[in-house]
Design goal:
There is one protein chain. The chain has 398 residues and is α/β, with parallel strands linked by helices. It contains 15 helices and 13 strands. The strands form four sheets. It has a seven-stranded mixed β-sheet with strand order 2-10-9-8-7-3-4. Helix 12 packs across helix 15 and helix 14 packs across helix 15. Bound molecules: 4'-deoxy-4'-aminopyridoxal-5'-phosphate. The site of 4'-deoxy-4'-aminopyridoxal-5'-phosphate has 12 residues, from helix 5. Homodimer. Its EC number is 2.6.1.-. Pfam families: Aminotran_1_2.
Length: 398
């Protein structure tokens, strides 16, 4: 009898499991709209020109591969803090923000969750209904009880704002509330700035603990526009956590690069919190990897590379908008008139409103892979596959 006989076979990750099924599908016309990855017109993952140039410069320097500090590369932290909070932000000058480099957005969420669990193991975590699949699993695994606040209204094809406010008002003080800063995954529906004002006020009044997750800055309306909610939280004066990911906005998925910031009331709190974050990191993976941080820092601090990056990211954003519109037009041309909402959604995903049965039929009959929830990654569409996808959706709808 081995100890490991106790290990049960866990179900495959719903998204990565879908990719395995996609890879095993022999039909050449197959389309994978399951994963959250931006693909170019050629159907391939882009290497952004700014990132390529930054990498060439780094390779030319041929630096030795030392360890980074526990909290990561100082130049990276400095650059992303400027991106997130604004270089002139008073909160940075006041040293009220503790920031660490993280292993992507997921790593930031986990380090933040571990810190929170250490400080208040009894707290409940609220995530949106629905949310990115890993939110529930990650906070559960960190030891929390995880519940959901109302978010998506399938009838209205939008946000159940009254339900959301009601659920936040009913939460116990100290409840941790995970919020998508922009480009909500999976629905594609974001709160308006006026709605954010109300949410920020309720969180503050109720003494809740906001944890903003920003994995898609730049994919909604623009870098500054998508980050606007961060300034609202800072202005409210409440403590909050913020995870960011550069997987999508720099197309650096495999480099595992992100950040976690905790915004606090005083420099002293920030110092204490940073010291705790460092212990969490030290006892998990000691210190983060170098390349992703060096690439992001180089791009953000070099004026030419930064301008090029902003243009490229803007190009990705507007291309996704066009793809959405072409899909809506393609569906309308096939008699599906009630899916125009896809054009107004933000970010990489579309909650299509298709049922599980329809999503299964898309896969089995048409080799078009999306999630059972109806989520499709519109950022994986291109002019070569759009017609097929529109035709397949129209077919399963009829
Ligand atoms: N949060 C959300 C809402 C996401 O969609 C994702 C990525 N799919 C992440 C966090 C994790 O980002 P990363 O891949 O950088 O770990």
């Amino acid at each position: 009898m081995s100890l490991f006989d106790r290990a049960e076979l866990a179900p495959a990750d719903p998204i990565l499991g879908l990719t395995e099924a996609f890879n095993a599908d022999a039909r050449p016309e197959k389309v994978n709209l399951g994963v959250g990855v931006y693909l170019g017109e050629d159907g391939k993952l882009p290497l952004m020109a700014s990132v390529r140039e930054a990498e060439e410069r780094l390779v030319a320097q041929r630096k030795p591969k030392s360890y980074l500090g526990i909290d990561g590369m100082p130049a990276f932290r400095e650059a992303v803090r400027g991106l997130i909070f604004g270089t002139e932000a008073q909160v940075l000058a006041d040293a009220r923000v503790a920031t660490v480099q993280s292993l992507g957005g997921t790593g930031a969420l986990k380090v933040g969750a571990d810190l929170l669990h250490q400080l208040d193991p009894e707290a409940t975590v609220l995530i949106s209904d629905p949310s990115w699949e890993n939110h529930r699993a990650l906070f559960t695994r960190a030891g929390f009880k995880v519940e959901a606040y109302r978010y998506y209204d399938p009838e209205a094809k939008g946000i159940d704002f009254d339900g959301l406010l009601e659920d936040l008002r009913a939460a116990e003080p100290g409840t941790i509330v995970v919020l998508h800063a922009c480009c909500h995954n999976p629905t594609g529906y974001d709160l308006s700035l006026e709605q954010w004002d109300q949410i920020v006020a309720v969180l503050d009044e109720r003494g809740l603990v906001p944890f903003l997750d920003m994995a898609y800055q730049g994919f909604g309306f623009g870098i500054a526009e998508d980050g606007a909610v961060v300034a609202k939280f800072v202005a409210s004066g409440q403590d909050f956590l913020l995870s960011t990911s550069y997987s999508k906005s720099f197309s650096l998925y495999g480099e595992r690069i992100g950040s976690l910031s905790v915004v606090l009331g005083s420099a002293d709190s920030a110092k204490r919190v940073l010291s705790q974050l460092k212990i969490t990191i030290r006892t998990n993976y000691s210190n983060p990897p170098t390349l992703g941080a060096a690439l992001v820092a180089t791009v953000l601090t070099d004026p030419d590379l930064r301008a090029s990056w902003e243009t490229e990211l803007g190009g990705m954003r507007s291309r996704i908008k066009e793809l959405r519109q072409v899909l809506v037009d393609g569906l309308a041309a096939r008699g599906i008139q009630d899916m125009g909402f896809i054009a107004g959604q933000l970010g990489m995903f579309s909650y299509s409103g298709l049922t599980k049965d329809q999503m299964v039929a898309l896969r089995t009959e048409h080799a078009v892979y999306g999630l059972d929830s109806g989520r499709m990654c519109v950022a994986a569409l291109n002019t070569g596959n759009l017609d097929r996808v529109a035709g397949a959706i129209a077919s399963v709808r009829s």
